[in-house]
Specification:
The protein has 120 residues and is of the alpha+beta class. The protein is globular, with a radius of gyration of 20 Å. Strands 1-5-6-4-3-2 form a six-stranded mixed beta sheet. The chain starts with a helix and ends with a strand. It contains two helices and six strands.
């Protein structure tokens, strides 16, 4: 009798634990085919006025400015500033793949908010 009441509770716990284990992991083992394979192509698209929000971009972190006026700033390409509020754990020379969020042109440079997909 007790076992009949215990089985549904155990099943519910297993489902809950499974759902929690899939949350919060930004790294993926499956590579994404990016919309822009490097910073130069992405910057050209921005300069041409293309809508890049939601697109994926691969780029190399050329220079990192952790305390810039815009927040944690990763420089890539000629005028690209990938900015976030916190350090995403990136080092200079890392290859990043991101999803583009908000984009703003500021005095000839691009300020790009992003969601990190993975770091190589």
């Amino acid at each position: 009798m007790r076992l009949r009441r215990l089985i549904p509770t155990l099943c519910a716990c297993l489902v809950f634990v499974g759902a929690l284990s899939s949350c919060g992991n930004k790294e993926t083992t499956e590579k994404i085919v990016p919309d822009y394979v490097n910073a130069e192509l992405f910057e050209s698209a921005l300069n041409a006025g293309e809508d890049t929000i939601g697109k994926t971009v691969c780029f190399v972190a050329d220079t990192i400015k952790p305390d810039s006026a815009f927040g944690f700033n990763i420089w890539a390409g000629e005028h690209l500033n990938f900015i976030s509020e916190t350090n995403p754990g990136v080092k200079e020379g890392d290859n990043l793949t991101v999803t583009v969020g908000e984009v703003e042109n500021f005095l000839g440079s691009w300020l790009i908010k992003y969601d990190l997909i993975y770091i190589d």
